[in-house]
Every structure is written in C-alpha cells, then in structure tokens.
Design goal:
This protein has 626 residues and is of the alpha/beta class. Helices cover 50% and strands 12% of the residues. The chain is globular.
C-alpha cells in the first residue's frame, strides 16, 4: 500500500517542481504571444493543475470496483522489448529486441517518440499512468495525459489537449497548443489509440504526426494494441510490452491478493496444477481473473478461454457465495443463463457499432436490441443496473457507461456468434474472409472464436482464407503440395502492399502498409521491404520519369491509401509493391518475400485441412446402434 505521508510529501515536492516548469512556460509564451494574464494569477492555479494530474492516479479495477484505487498501490514493474538494429549487407537491417525493466520515461533512453504496443490485458493503460505519475514527481516536464477514446467526433486532438490545460486560465486554444508543444516543456501521454473509432482514427493519426513532427522538443508516448496502424509511422519507435515470464506472476498475485495467506494458498495451487497454469499467467488481467475465480470457487481453470468463459458466472454470484443463506435481490426475473444470453447479445450489438463507452440512451437501446434477439421481456434499465451493480463488468462513471475492459466486450460478442445456429456464424466467417475491413473490425472476436468455435472457424474462415491468398478454388488444388510462385501469386500476396515515400526520411522511406496480411499471418514478421533504400525511386518519381500507377492504388485495398491523410499531402508519395517490382526495383527481394508468405500460408492450410478432415471422419453414430 502507498504510504499516505510519503505520498503527500512526494506530491508537495512535485507541485513545487511543477510550479517552476509553469513559470518557465509563462516566460516562453510571453516572448511568443501577447499574454494579458498576470503571472501570479497563473501561479495560483498550479495546485489545481497538480490536482488534475493527480486525479489520473485513481482508477477502478476488476478486482476493486467499489472505489477508485491509487495506481501505485497495485502497479507492478513492467518490462518492454526495445528494438536494437544490426546492419546486414544483403537484407538491409535486421531488428533484434532487448528486454528492459522500465520505471520512468528516461529508462527508455534516447529513442524519441514512443508507441507502447501490447495485447489485451497486459496493462498498457496502467503502465502509461505510472509513467505519467513518475514524470510529474520528477518535475522535469509538464505531463499531459489524454484518453484518446474521449476525443469527440467534431473535436481535434489539439482542442482536446487544450482542455487539459484550461485550468491555468491561459486562454489556450489549438493555435496556442501548437506553440506550447514546440516549447519542449511538455511530455504527452496518449492512451489507447486502438480505441479511437475507426472513422476518427486516420484524422487522429494525422494530427498526432503533425504535432510530433513539428515539436521536436516535446515527447509523445502512445499506447495501442498491435496492428492499429500507428506502428507504421516513421515518427515513432515501437516498443512492445512483454509478457510476465518465469516467476514474475508471483509479485502480481501478492500485490492483488487481499492477504498473504490467500496469496500463498493460490500460489501453492498454481505450482501443483497439472496443466502448468503458470504458463498462462502472462498478463495482469489473466491473473486478476484467476484471483476472482479462485476466491469464488477455490478452483483453477485449464486454459485461457476458461478465464473469460467462467468470469460472468463468477461475478454474477460471487457476493452471494460469500454470504451463506443470502441471495442478492435482482431487478430482473430471469435466471443466470438468460442473463448470460442477453449479455452476450448486448456485447455483440455494441461491438457492431464499434463503441465501448455509451450514454444511457445508447446503452439502453443496445440492451433492448439484445433482448429482442434472445426473446426476453425485461426492462432494459433494470438489466443495466443488475449487470453494473452485481457483475461490475460495466462501469457507470458520470454520464458514461463503459466496459471494465475491452476484452470483456470482445469475448462475449464472440460467445454470442459461437452460440448462433450454424448458418449465421458461417455467414459471419464468410464476410470476414471476403473483406479485410470487416475482419479487422472483428479481429479480437475472431481470435477468441479460433479457440471456442474452432471447427467452424477453421472450416468457414481459415481454409477459405488460405484459398484466397494462394489463389486456388478449393482444397483439391493444394493436395499435391505448395503452389509454385507465379506473378499472380506475388501480386496476390505482396503486390497490394503500399510503400510511402518522403524525401530525406530514412532513405525516403516513410511508411509501409501490409495490413491485409494480418488476416492470416502476423504481418510484423514480413516487413523486409521497410528496410530498403528507396532514394533513387523517389527521385525518379519526383522527376516524373516514373509515374505512380493510380489504378493499382485503386485496387481491392484502395481505402488503405485513399483514406490515409498522408496520401493527400504532396510531401508523401504512395506506391504499390507491384509497381515497384514492375519498375525493376528489388525484384529478388519482393519475390523472396512472396515465396516465404506463400510457404507459410500453405503450412497453415495443411494443418487446418488435417484438423477438419480428422473431425469430419469421426462417426458419432458408430457405437450407439444407429
């Protein structure tokens, strides 16, 4: 637990240091713009700014829902994988990663702006808040914390940042925010880029890149899930939050457990678990779910999906189980299974509209639709109150309702799809296979479905996806082996990838889009073309001896280009890998990459085909006399 006296002294010291930084900022602004506000008035507002900064210490968590908790009470040290580069003569550069313990921003070293990438439940937001708090305590720069999902549709990133500082009464608007960013006196912590609605994502990235590109004195740190798009920006270094390894899970259990005895009992049970459960305890979220489940049932799950599958029932009844003879009053007259069915459908409906936070009207509308789907006749507000007050999977904060964690929404939306009659999931899988943008929207649900609906996922999604990329009609075309590399296969696997060029940046390289590949492979393993020198190609395009083939950019994946704000800027040039090859550049490298992708997809097909064949060959009626 955080010592309150020590915490108060730290905050007092930090506030004094913040005051010096604000004084410097005022003097900087005075030389740049006309300020009509007295400096002493601004100084009087410094404690209020410190309070605003300190407010980001307090969060509600899945294991402590009744009251906000100081992040520092339960934060455990995070480790990241930081890229280091080794130059190789033949293939450009090969990137290796070094595992480092990070306690404050300076521990990253001089790597500039940072994207912290991590999977669901790794603790990205808590890590970012810890770094934010440490920066405040160190007093070197003024920290600004922005939850990117809270930026309104008609609001710019700069306008939202201005609101963070409006407490100083400096009359800060977007123009002044740009000037402030150039002062070098700020460090920006921007949380959850992946939670920005798709319709706003490109605009937000464009604004962020502009701000980072024109403010070399400031630092920007962004968290995101993998493959959100921001990782491809040349203005950021991507570091990955690493899983908990070896015995690191022990420290998290001890931090989150109610007492030492419970922690020791749980740890003993984990060590004796037949399925080596400790291998699954790789994120703080999974450990939290385990603690909640074990506290209720004194039973350990077998695999990762079991955490999510059981958690609804655990939370729905955990208070009742802790009080013998007590049954909590519920507002809806339905059983536990019906609560689960409605919640599944509700998660699906909210995921359809790509939202995880809602007004009261929005959430009631989604619940009403869910009830219609499962044919339940209950009051939507009563159901909302039950789910919020009993399970705590939904939080109510001010005017906003939101999921306790986005992965909760995603798992139960996947569970809804799994439990539909066969033709409906089949249609869902076909839509995701056929359209990258649909599969990208439902990416996390597809990941869960690969575990909980493995047969239909494999048969109706993964096999057809292999056919699509390998350019075959059916499995018979692959029975005799991996297809030979042809121009058509090269075009089908890497031709649609897009290279962005800009003069004097990394040998003219600016960004690389191969997002569509993530439907079937981890595209992070296929980025060799990022490491090549495009200076000559860029020069020839600028000199107009090569014309960019805009028809190729208008192919099946044109939205990746045309919606990207950088392609509308004359400084950037987008060109497909297909055209780069046609112009005679890096033919061997492109062919080699395509060959590797084709071979890897073929291996996926072979494994999936064998699984489906094995499942289909089982005769369920053979031994029961039918």
């Amino acid at each position: 637990m955080v010592d309150p006296i020590s915490s108060s002294l730290t905050t007092l010291t930090a506030t004094k240091l913040l005051g010096r930084a604000v004084d410097d900022l005022y003097d900087f602004l005075k030389d740049k713009v006309s300020l009509t506000i007295d400096k002493k008035r601004v100084q009087r507002r410094i404690p209020a700014l410190a309070d605003r900064i300190n407010s980001f210490r307090m969060v509600k968590t899945l294991w402590q829902i009744e009251r906000p908790v100081d992040v520092e009470e339960f934060y455990c040290t995070s480790h990241v994988l930081i890229p280091t580069t080794v130059k190789l003569s033949q293939i450009g550069r090969q990137t290796h990663k070094k595992r480092m313990k990070i306690d404050c921003v300076s521990d990253f070293g001089n790597i500039g702006n940072i994207v912290i990438s991590g999977i669901a439940g790794q603790g990205k937001s808590i890590f970012l808040r810890h770094l934010f708090i440490r920066e405040f305590e160190l007093g070197r720069r003024i920290p600004i914390f922005i939850e990117l999902r809270k930026i309104e549709k008609d609001e710019s990133l700069l306008d939202h940042i201005s609101r963070f500082l409006d407490i100083l009464d400096l009359g800060i608007d977007s123009r002044l925010s740009r000037i402030l960013a150039r002062s070098g006196k700020f460090i920006y912590f921007l949380d959850a880029y992946d939670e920005v609605p798709e319709i706003q994502k490109q605009r937000t990235l464009s604004e962020l890149e502009y701000l980072a590109g024109t403010s070399p004195g400031s630092q920007f740190i962004v968290t995101t899930r993998p493959d959100s798009g921001i990782e491809m920006s040349s203005l950021f270094t991507v570091v990955n939050l690493d899983d908990l390894i070896n015995n690191e899970y022990l420290g998290v259990i001890r931090k989150l457990s109610a007492d030492v005895q419970f922690a020791n009992t749980l740890i003993k049970s984990i060590r004796g678990h037949k399925a080596t459960l400790c291998d699954l305890l790789c994120t703080p979220l999974l450990i939290t779910l385990l603690i909640i489940q074990y506290n209720s049932f004194q039973k350990l799950p077998e695999q990762m999906s079991d955490f999510y599958e059981s958690i609804f029932d655990v939370l729905l009844r955990r208070h009742d189980r802790s009080k013998p003879g007590f049954v909590r009053q519920r507002l809806c007259s339905i059983n536990d299974n019906q609560y689960r069915e409605i919640f599944n459908a509700f998660c699906f409906e909210t995921q359809k509209i790509d939202k995880s936070q809602f007004s009261l009207a929005e959430i009631q509308n989604a619940i009403s639709k869910a009830m219609q789907i499962v044919n339940a006749d209950e009051d939507s507000l009563n159901f909302l109150k039950d789910i919020t007050n009993i399970t705590c999977l939904l939080l109510h904060e001010g005017d906003e309702h939101r999921f306790i964690h986005k992965s909760v929404q995603e798992y139960y939306a996947a569970s809804f799809i799994k439990n539909r009659p066969d033709n409906l999931p089949k249609n869902f899988y076909h839509a995701c296979m056929s359209d990258y943008f649909i599969s990208n929207k439902w990416k996390q649900e597809l990941g869960f479905l690969s575990e909980i609906d493995k047969y239909r996922y494999s048969k109706y999604y993964l096999l057809p996806l292999c056919h699509k990329y390998l350019n075959v009609n059916n499995d018979n075309d692959l029975i005799n082996g991996c297809p030979d590399i042809t121009e058509e296969l090269i075009r089908n696997t890497v031709g649609f990838h897009i290279v962005g060029l800009k003069n004097n940046i990394n040998n003219s390289f600016a960004y690389y889009h191969c997002n569509t590949l993530e439907q079937i492979l981890d595209e992070g393993n296929y980025l060799e073309l990022m490491n090549l020198d495009y200076t000559d190609l860029f020069s020839r395009i600028k000199e107009k001896t090569i014309s960019v083939n805009k028809e190729l950019l208008k192919g099946n994946y044109s939205d990746l280009v045309t919606s990207h704000p950088r392609t509308k800027n004359d400084e950037y040039i987008s060109i497909t890998v297909e055209q780069i090859k046609k112009e005679g550049y890096y033919v061997d490298e492109i062919t080699s990459l395509a060959t590797r992708i084709v071979n890897d997809i073929y291996l996926i097909w072979r494994e999936t085909y064998s699984y489906i064949d094995r499942e289909d060959s089982f005769n369920i009626t053979a031994d029961i006399g039918i």
